[in-house]
Amino acid sequence: MKKETVGSKDAEEGGSASQRIDAKIKALGDWRGETLARVRTLIKQADPEVVEALKWRGVPVWSHAGILCTGETYKNAVKMTFAKGASLEDPSGLFNASLDGNTRRAIDIHEGDRIDETALKALIRAAVALNMS
Q1: Is 70 helix (H, G, I), strand (E, B) or coil?
Q2: Other C-beta atoms within 10 Å of 95: how many?
Q3: pTM
Q4: In which domain, by residue range, is 95 found?
């Protein structure tokens, strides 16, 4: 996996993007941190060349030839927003949020939800392929 570094700004903000995502997961300290960590692992398994970053006030972002998805955390959900989700086939019906937009699609994961790991990895790979096309 590639790690994004942005010069001295990383040192000022506590290390590489991957290290800061680790810290964010640990700081959450609840089901949201566990879910974000699981999603992150699945993304890395689906695309070992993914690049991690933190943007927009600490939102984890995964990219490969462009943004694949983000991992936002809210009180009641972990939201995976796919930058080009409206252009992706979703045969397993993972997308359950932001369905009306022309570009993005999202998956809201709530406490206790089971993640369809095979379908999520396929969606990540499809997002990479779309970015590479």
Answers
A1: strand
A2: 19
A3: 0.88
A4: 2-132
